[in-house]
Design a protein that fits this description.
By secondary structure, the chain is α/β, with parallel strands linked by helices. It has a domain of 213 residues: 3-Layer(bba) Sandwich (FAD/NAD(P)-binding domain). Helices cover 36% and strands 18% of the residues. Strands 6, 7, 11, 12, 13, 14, 15 and 16 form an eight-stranded mixed sheet that branches. It has a five-stranded parallel sheet with strand order 9-2-1-10-17. Strands 3-4 form a two-stranded antiparallel ribbon. Strand 6 and strand 7 form a beta hairpin. The chain is globular and about 65 Å long. The relative contact order is 0.19.
Length: 478
């Protein structure tokens, strides 16, 4: 039997491992941490029984993944849950734009912009399953659904600052801009609007669900499937060289998938990497970081806007113009006074995340702020102030916090260089060609060795497609 090893147990590494095991290979996954999952882990950090997602929290691309959706992960413990409102973006005047799976629900919050919102997103949501097949794969390919993808492609090329001109009033403009800010960087450059289009369309098509019991349920389901296929996972094994890999395994595997950032591949493969690839990896750019805070609160968040009290995900950044300015500042290495923030109320869809302590209902609130790459300061107060801005009285409900700074995030996961949870800047070149310009972005130029992290197409997000396509590249070679 042919043997394979996967270094890293994030969703891409596990997806790649499953695909190889499906093809009959004997697969071993090695994970540096004591628990598998990479960005899909869940922990009790503040109050016993209170569940906090360590990194990934909402999974529109997971629910829409062309590969994960074929695996029957519900048979292995994964269950998607949806809040009543998928996403909300509040404003200082008390209004908020919202996204739900029923697009007409958004109309009452978008006012005069509702019709133009439909014109942009209704065709994308209606054909999202076809668009996802082509958008979540290497850029150099013949589209399987050219009509649907052709509708998305030209719009995706535009900067977010141009796309936002479809709308006139603040709720729609802010709602789109907040989704576009998931690109982590300047939003006035080509292709910067693509992330906003894709994730907003996904919100209307499949929603922004959470995994019951926490994001760790996703990696747990993948591991159980892998083990059913004969594979295994070993934790607490940090791989730093090919020699060590051989020593740990006791053999030379036919296939090596590295679920690591380019910096990790440089460390492990060293001088074995061809010069052209080594140079490209040294030039590879990483993006802004996050400062993450988990809150334990008594009761619910006292949002001024009623829709926000039913929203699983919230973007806090004010108007579109404010979002554009703060994202540009973090990209320049400047810490904004009011950083763009992402808030999670997963417990609204999944009450198992909450607990009762001393007769009080304690709920987990997941949050992070966008900060400059490698930011060494403490953005906790700025993040808390952003929540308080739209939910006066929030501070009074805090029971406890657990903080991970940008440098802490890098220590938590070696792929998060400088705290960049996307494992690579989403500039125009790297959206199209990451980690380097080549027809096969997964190949490492060493026979049998492939990169499968979110530093490869289609980039960040819990979708497993990077691992799947890296495994497919390996199988074609075999």
């Amino acid at each position: 039997m042919r043997r394979a090893v996967v270094v890293g147990s994030g969703p891409n590494g596990l997806a790649g491992a499953v695909r190889l095991a499906q093809a009959g290979l004997e697969v071993t996954v090695l994970e540096a941490a004591e628990t598998y999952g990479g960005g899909t882990r869940t922990s009790e950090r503040i109050v016993p029984g209170l569940l906090h997602d360590d990194c990934s929290a909402f999974h529109p691309t997971g629910a829409a993944s062309p590969y994960l959706s074929t695996l029957g992960l519900e048979e292995h413990g994964l269950r998607w849950l949806w809040p009543q409102i998928d996403l909300a973006h509040p404003l200082d005047d008390g209004r908020a734009g919202i996204i739900t799976r029923t697009m007409s629900d958004s109309d009452r919050t978008l006012g005069a912009d509702a019709r133009s919102w439909h014109r942009v997103f209704e065709p994308l949501a209606r054909t999202f399953d076809k668009i996802a097949v082509d958008a979540m794969r290497p850029p150099v390919h013949v589209p399987k659904h050219p009509i649907a993808f052709g509708r998305f492609g030209p719009q995706a090329l535009l900067p977010a600052t141009v796309t936002v001109r479809h709308w006139k009033d603040d709720p729609a403009r802010a709602l789109y801009s907040g989704v576009a800010a998931h690109a982590f960087g300047r939003l006035d450059t080509p292709l910067s609007g693509s992330v906003g289009l894709m994730l907003a369309a996904a919100g209307h098509a499949v929603g922004w669900p959470v995994a019951e019991g926490g994001s760790g349920s996703i990696s747990g389901a993948l591991v159980r499937l892998l083990e059913k296929l004969g594979g295994s996972v070993r934790t607490g094994v940090r791989v730093t060289s090919r020699a060590q890999l051989r020593e740990v395994l006791g053999h030379d595997p036919e296939v090596v998938l590295l679920d690591v950032a380019p910096a990790g591949a440089l460390e492990i493969l060293g001088d074995d990497l061809p010069g052209r690839i080594s140079r490209a990896f040294h030039r590879y750019q990483y993006g802004p970081a996050v400062h993450k805070v988990d809150y334990a609160i008594e009761g619910d968040v006292p949002w001024t806007n009623e829709d926000c009290r039913q929203a699983g995900t919230l973007h806090l950044g004010g108007t579109a113009e404010e979002v554009f300015a703060t994202e540009a500042a973090t990209a320049r290495g400047e810490m904004p006074d009011r950083p763009f923030a992402l808030i999670g109320q997963q417990y609204l869809a999944d009450p198992s995340r909450s607990t009762v302590s001393e007769g009080r209902t304690i709920n987990p609130v997941w949050a992070y702020a966008h900060v400059p790459a490698g930011f060494t300061g403490d953005a906790t107060e700025a993040l808390t102030a952003q929540i308080e801005r739209f939910a006066p009285g929030f501070r009074d409900r805090i029971v406890g916090t657990f903080v991970r700074s940008a440098t802490d995030m890098a220590a938590y996961n070696a792929n998060y260089i400088g705290g960049d949870i996307s494992a690579g800047a989403n500039n125009a070149r790297q959206i199209l060609f990451r980690p380097r310009i080549t027809w096969n972005p997964y190949s490492l130029g060493i026979p049998g060795h492939y990169l499968c992290s979110s530093s490869t197409p289609p980039g960040g997000g819990v979708h497993g497609m990077s691992g799947y396509y890296a495994a497919e590249a390996a199988l074609r070679r075999l």
